[in-house]
Amino acid sequence: MADSAEAITLHFASPELLRNNRTRVSKSYTDSIDNIVTDVLKNQLGSSQDLNIGPTSGIRKIVSPNVHPYTLVNMLKKEAV
């Protein structure tokens, strides 16, 4: 008698990830990076999650080049101090 096994792979995605793939941010900002990220995640992406974003120093002037919200956040994280 041969044993048969079946492998099942499940893929999960949060509602924010699904919205991120459908949303583009095209907006100019003049603010601190933490405030820009908060606006992108709360207002542009519509996230209802509690955010834990630390304060950043300085004011950044940026024009978002019509990118996905998470792409913009990743661009800004490299410059955050």
Which descriptors would you attach to this protein?
81 residues, alpha+beta, two-stranded antiparallel ribbon, 3 helices, 2 strands
How would you sum up this structure, described in words?
By secondary structure, the chain is of the alpha+beta class. It has three helices and two strands. The protein has helices at residues 15-22, 33-44, 69-77; strands at 28-31, 60-63. Strands 1-2 form a two-stranded antiparallel ribbon. Helix 2 runs antiparallel to helix 3. It is elongated and about 65 Å long. The mean pLDDT is 92.
Distance between the termini: 64 Å
Order of helices and strands: HEHEH
> Count of helices?
3
Derived structural class: alpha+beta
Strand content: 5-15%
Q: In angstroms, what is the radius of gyration?
A: 18 Å
- Spatial order of the strands forming the largest sheet: 1-2
Helical fraction:
25-40%
Q: Specify the overall morphology.
A: elongated
Number of strands: 2
Average of pLDDT: 92
